[in-house]
Design goal:
Layout: E1 4-6, E2 21-23, E3 42-50, E4 57-67, H1 72-81, H2 96-113, H3 120-135, E5 139-141, H4 143-148, E6 160-162, H5 169-184, E7 188-192, H6 212-226, E8 237-242, H7 248-267, E9 288-293, H8 295-303, E10 306-310, E11 317-322, H9 323-337, E12 341-344, H10 345-350, E13 375-383, E14 388-390, E15 396-398, H11 400-420, H12 426-435, E16 438-443, H13 445-451, H14 459-487, H15 493-513, H16 521-542, H17 556-561, E17 576-580, E18 586-590, H18 593-600, H19 605-618, H20 646-656, E19 667-670, H21 676-688, E20 693-698, H22 709-722, E21 744-751, E22 754-763, E23 767-775, H23 781-798, H24 803-810, E24 819-823, E25 826-829, H25 832-844, H26 847-852, H27 858-867, H28 880-886, H29 893-900, H30 902-908, H31 911-914, H32 918-926, E26 943-945, E27 948-950
């Protein structure tokens, strides 16, 4: 725990601060006398980002400086999104050092100016520790910090805003203006419209009120015009209406009716794709809608009772409805167009730390921030994989002690930022400074669970997630109590002290009641228990610096910045990923977490290699060699043959929710075949399990979005079928025979005791052309079949079938003889055919192609164990001439095959040739259609990140970052 100490007051202090005290900052990662920048290897890279649709350059900056361990994607996104200054000007940032210094030094100065540190030495440790953690991708602040802190523009640090609107025209017009200012600054906002009179109530003049739905039209048009941050993506906003509002049915139906309009216009020939010329004629498309339900309503749904809709000014019931029917209408609308989501009002306010000031009525657009009206929250997220440790014996542990220390550091920095931050409106600034809401969270949970051998939908996985969340929030509030002793509690604390302490007790009780499962989560629960004990003790004595501490945000762009495999609380998208390469291009890889999971589950290196190879070919673990069926669930993902069930997502949210100040940004994805009844069950169980908010998305439920490739193919086929028949020209491949003299490699091998010889002959300048296989027992059935098989393969090669196609089809084929081989590069083989094509891949395929298939040499596997990468270091010498002599067609084989047999390449090309993101790769690998929009900035298909969409190509998001 960080100590507080007496010392001379420095600089100006916030209201209620206690003079003469400061924090002693503890070193976590840094070394005295050594700057964090001096401990890493820096390199220069060129960032050139293109639009894959037309090849145009979206962004270019050459010679940027980053640590050598940062991925291509992280470098591209940070350079294009966060470096400040005009590109090409001397003021343009060109190094990660400049970016981190700009932010960290501002935070240090803010801490010194407002009396946070006991001494200049503590301030320096704070600066170095913060820089080290950012440099090594241990955590990241939200995007507005990187955009604004340390620049000449307003230093807005918050990404999440909640507004308010009253039942007056002045207030409604203020709403439009305030929302527009927030969108202009690149952030999102939410608000509750329930104070506005319904269309069933009278105005003072005697006429009928317009109702909130009509005013939503104006706000939607404004958001669509302003966009967000002056960019081309849509604004991010949330609109909430209470379930007892008389216009609630009209609110529920707004987007359903617009979807019907989209269908009608599309069928009439209008361009209704997302971003199309005619989509702007459709209303209500710039907001997420949510209905705020209370316990009274949900109990009426449960019992089949009636529920009263109340007048806004008097509170009297003006209409009675069947609760089940209204609930059904919500589910039907969500089934049709994904809106509205649901927010559970009584649960939200049961965990409210400041109820004496006002109720929580709304959330930010992604639903994780829930607090007072006219307030904001700045976010930061920790990369959980950075705290997973392996000892010499291969045992795993989550480093709870170091995790807690980093949480203390980050919470301190986040609170300091409120001291110097600017806000879009005066009302938001006043509320935020008075309540100092923070939103620490994490990313990479899905990767952590898989790497530790836990299924996402399992008791063990939920226990570990709950323990980490509890430790994070408990540590945050403990540090908040320590800060209160140094610089005073938040201004609104005195009025809300009893309620705040009651909520802290609720968190502590939930922690005590939580179920411990195994050796990984139990130590984390123990650390969390100690943290909550300190919270109750220190908070009772000092109060708290912050009314809110934690949320689980989408971690979209910053998740890519930290090279996270998974965002927020989400599971992994799929087992096969899309990776950009330093020299340009990309390749398909199996998730790095898969081998760690298999090792945790007790599999041997040879078994791990075979399973990874199977995943590379099939995209899933079903029927993977040596993998036990009871372990399949560990590798379940958001997409694919073994996709996690919708209720599995809900149960994971419920495991984390009791240990969060705010809520969770997450959409529960449901298959296209999901029923309205299943959506009702999800919404009802969310209430029963104590969630604060929930949204669902049924695949292919929306029309106004780009067609997936599969849909376009179907449409093209239908159009072709309707067209008049044309003359068909049939193209046939031509056999290219080998010359009389040809280079070749003869390999002797033993597989499971069966001996044989393989001769692989090449074209002089164009790669493998024939294979001869001879088994030791001439005349046997096996020898005869090998002769026939080798002839068939040779003829196929000469007709242009790519070798990689044979490799992908025949590796992992299982039959006897099988077992150990005498080849150091292929120690185990499932069959002779499996061995033959692994050997051919190693001899004739380029590294990128066979690595995508999971085939590596012994040297490459050794390098991976030592460095985490199969690829040779850039300074490692490579015998280019030798490689060219031993496999002269390696680089040209795919090109030649494409020229000779274009129709075969179209059918057999690896997924990585067609994909531009992991979503597209998963679609190709798994035969699915991800129902996601294309990125407006670069044209690649986006993927889900909480309630928003994230572009892996350029880091753009469809919501708050």
């Amino acid at each position: 725990m960080t100590e507080t100490t007496s010392g001379p007051a420095r600089g100006s202090r916030g209201k209620g601060s206690k003079a003469g005290k400061g924090l002693r900052i503890e070193r976590i990662h840094t070394t005295p006398g050594v700057h964090p920048y001096d401990e890493v290897v820096w390199e220069r890279r060129d960032v050139v980002m293109t639009n894959w649709r037309d090849g145009s350059v979206n962004f270019e900056q050459r010679g940027v400086e980053f640590p050598d361990f940062w991925s291509v994607n992280a470098v591209n996104i940070v350079t294009s999104k966060y470096f400040r200054g005009a590109v090409g000007s001397p003021q343009r940032e060109s190094s990660l050092r400049q970016l981190i210094d700009r932010v960290v030094k501002t935070y240090r100065k803010g801490g010194e100016d407002h009396g946070y540190f006991a001494s200049p030495a503590d301030a320096e440790i704070f600066e170095h520790e913060l820089a080290w953690a950012l440099l090594h991708q241990v955590f990241s602040f939200n995007s507005p910090v990187w955009f604004n802190v340390g620049t000449a523009q307003p230093q807005q640090v918050s990404a999440c805003f909640i507004l308010s609107v009253d039942d007056s025209m002045d207030s409604i017009l203020d709403w439009y203006k305030e929302e527009g200012l927030i969108f202009k600054g690149g952030s999102g906002a939410g608000l509750n419209l329930s104070r506005i009179r319904s269309s069933k109530e009278l105005l003072s003049s005697g006429g009928n009120a317009s109702g909130p739905v009509s005013f939503m039209r104006g706000a939607d048009a404004s958001a669509g015009t302003i966009k967000s941050g002056g960019a081309t993506r849509r604004a991010a906003k949330m609109v909430v209406l209470d379930v007892d509002h008389p216009d609630v049915e009209a609110f529920i139906e707004t987007k359903v009716k617009e979807e019907e309009k989209i269908r009608a216009l599309r069928d009439a020939g209008f361009d209704m794709d997302l971003g199309g010329d005619d989509i702007t004629s459709v209303q209500y498309q710039n907001a997420n809608n949510s209905v705020r339900v209370n316990d009274e309503f949900m109990k009426a749904v449960e019992t089949g009772g009636e529920f009263g809709l109340r007048a806004r000014l008097t509170g009297e019931v003006i209409e009675t409805v069947d609760a089940k029917r209204l609930f059904r209408k919500m589910a039907e609308a969500a089934w049709a167009c994904a809106d509205p989501g649901i927010q559970y009002d009584d649960t939200i306010n049961h965990w409210h730390t400041s109820p004496e000031t006002g109720r929580i009525t709304a959330s930010n657009p992604c639903s994780e921030y829930m607090h007072l009206d006219n307030s904001s929250c700045n976010l930061a997220s920790l990369n959980l994989m950075k705290f997973l440790s392996d000892d010499d014996q291969g045992n795993q542990s989550f480093d709870a002690e170091r995790f807690a220390k980093v949480v203390e550091l980050v919470i301190t920095a986040m609170d300091i930022s409120i001291c110097f931050a600017d806000f879009p409106t005066e009302k938001i600034g006043e509320t935020t400074r008075a309540f100092r809401q923070l939103g620490i969270g994490y990313a990479n949970l899905g990767a952590l669970l898989m790497a530790t051998g836990h299924a996402y939908d399992s008791d063990g996985g939920r226990a570990l997630a709950g323990a980490i969340t509890s430790l994070m929030t408990g540590t945050s509030y403990r540090r908040s109590a320590e800060l209160a002793a140094v610089v005073g509690p938040y201004d609104g604390y005195a009025r809300n002290a009893e309620a705040h302490k009651r909520v802290m007790k609720q968190h502590a009780d939930a922690n005590a009641d939580a179920r411990r499962m195994d050796d990984l989560d139990t130590p984390v629960w123990d650390a969390a228990t100690r943290a909550w004990q300190d919270v109750l003790e220190l908070g009772g004595k000092n109060g708290f610096r912050n009314a809110q501490a934690s949320v689980l945000a989408p971690t979209g762009t910053i998740g890519l910045m930290m090279d996270c495999d998974t965002t927020g609380v989400e599971p992994d998208l799929a087992l096969v990923k899309f990776k950009k390469l330093v020299g340009g291009g990309s390749m398909q890889i199996v998730n790095n977490t898969v081998p760690k999971a298999l090792k945790r589950l007790g599999y041997q290196p040879e078994q791990v290699e075979a399973i990874v190879a199977h995943i590379a070919e099939h995209g899933n673990v079903v029927d993977a060699p040596a993998l036990k069926p009871e372990h399949y669930e560990v590798f379940d993902c958001a997409m694919g043959e073994r996709a996690i069930s919708p209720m599995g997502h809900v149960r994971m949210m419920a495991a984390a929710q009791p240990f969060l100040s705010g809520a969770i940004s997450k959409t529960v994805n449901m298959p296209e075949s999901a029923t309205v009844e299943e959506i009702e069950e999800i919404y009802f169980e969310g209430w029963k399990l104590g969630l604060k908010a929930l949204a669902i998305y049924r695949d292919n439920c929306k029309v106004g979005q780009p067609l997936s490739a599969k849909k376009k193919e179907t449409a093209a086929k239908e159009e072709a079928a309707a067209a008049p028949a044309e003359k068909v020209v049939e193209y046939r491949p031509v056999r290219k025979r080998l010359p009389k003299g040809r280079p070749g490699i003869t390999t002797s091998f033993t597989v499971g005791g069966a001996e044989g010889y393989m001769t692989a002959n090449s074209y002089p300048d164009d790669g493998l052309g024939e294979v001869f296989l001879k088994m030791s027992k001439q005349g046997s059935t096996l020898a005869g079949m090998m002769d026939a098989f080798s002839i068939a393969v040779s003829v196929g090669l000469q007709y242009g079938v790519p070798l990689e196609t044979y490799v992908s089809k025949f590796t992992n084929m299982r039959f006897e003889p099988a077992g150990m081989t005498d080849d150091p590069d292929v120690r185990m083989a499932q069959s002779i055919v499996d061995y033959i094509f692994r050997r051919l891949a190693l001899d004739f395929l380029p590294f990128e192609t066979r690595s995508a298939l999971g085939i590596h040499s012994a040297e490459e596997r050794r390098r991976h164990l030592e460095t985490g990468s199969y690829e040779p270091a850039e300074d490692e010498e490579v015998d280019v001439e030798g490689l060219a002599q031993s496999a002269p067609r390696q680089a040209e084989a795919p090109k030649q095959a494409a020229a000779e047999a274009p129709q075969k390449e179209a059918a057999q090309a690896p997924a990585s040739r067609e994909a531009h993101t992991s979503v597209e790769l998963a679609e190709i690998q798994l035969g699915l259609n991800a129902d996601a929009p294309l990125c407006f900035s670069c044209g690649t298909k986006m993927r889900r990140a909480g309630s928003c969409y994230l572009c892996e190509g350029c880091g753009s998001t469809s919501g708050c970052s």
